Amino acid sequence: MEESTLTLPNENWPSIEAGWVWLCGAGPGDPGLMTLHAVNALRQADVIVYDALVAPEILDWARPEAEKIYAGKRGGKPSAKQVDISLTLVDLAQQGKRVLRLKGGDPFVFGRGGEEAQTLIQHGVPVRIVPGISAGIGGLAYAGIPVTHRDVNQAVTFVTGHDQTGEATKTLDWDALSRSSGVLVIYMGMKHAPSIRAGLMGAGRAADEPVAIVSQATTPNQKVLETTLGQMLDDIAKTEMGPPAIICVGRAVLMRQVLDWQALMRGEQPRNLDPLGRGKPAEVRD
Ligand code: SAH
């Protein structure tokens, strides 16, 4: 079978102009989850300012002469301050460079992309935003967990496990969240997993409520822990689930018993074709 060659002709695709910053999502890890706009930007940028969560293979698509600046903020390595990152972007743009700011997942989802874009615009630097696949949606999909399902939830809530100071988020109203949302998707939740669990159980979520923890989602090192609210802390301690990880709370997690497509690709059988116990095929609706 002959394959088509995908080209992104710059006459029809937007080019980064000198002095512009493109703020692009790189997706959760698998380079194939980048958008075409982001790939197109990588091929043009003079300078790429990237985060810790951007997969190294992605940077290989840059022009060989492009300057790559690491602006990561992960524990262990020296952290760049947010103000320094934002002002670096302003400075590079004002030097007339074509700047690509590449962030993990989606830049506007718990990624401070809004702050960076605001700083750029306040300094008169023109910006283009390229959304990305967020870990809380795409990462869970790679684990076989749909964030919505008609038989499970009519709402999904994205929550951050810690606030700007790194402490457990104090402004979260766990009672309201628990009541309003069948499925909760928690970013940056591992450090404060005990208080998240306490908040949810204190608000009446059951100890046997399904929970999944997906670490390094969409990468070759992806790990998935299926557990329950009651058991999660013990199970996290037993398994080596390091960051970055997404915590998903709710019955959507049960769908993995049928939708773990990566297990099916390895030749395993589905564990349970009807994990919600509907008793009829999925295509038959009420
Ligand atoms: N803007 C990003 C989120 C940045 S906050 C996005 O839209 O995905 C960082 C948090 O994102 C991590 O603590 C973790 O909760 C989550 N995360 C990012 N990449 C991940 C991955 N590959 N696997 C699991 N969680 C991930």
TrEMBL record:
One Pfam short name: TP_methylase
Any one of the GO BP annotations: siroheme biosynthetic process
Gene3D superfamilies assigned to the protein according to its UniProt record, in alphabetical order: Cobalt-precorrin-4 Transmethylase, Domain 1, Methyltransferase, Cobalt-precorrin-4 Transmethylase, Domain 2
Known pathway: Cofactor biosynthesis; adenosylcobalamin biosynthesis; precorrin-2 from uroporphyrinogen III: step 1/1; Porphyrin-containing compound metabolism; siroheme biosynthesis; precorrin-2 from uroporphyrinogen III: step 1/1
Residue span(s) of domain Tetrapyrrole methylase: 21-232
CDD domains attached to this UniProt entry: SUMT
Family to which the UniProt record says this protein belongs: Belongs to the precorrin methyltransferase family.
Protein name per the record: uroporphyrinogen-III C-methyltransferase
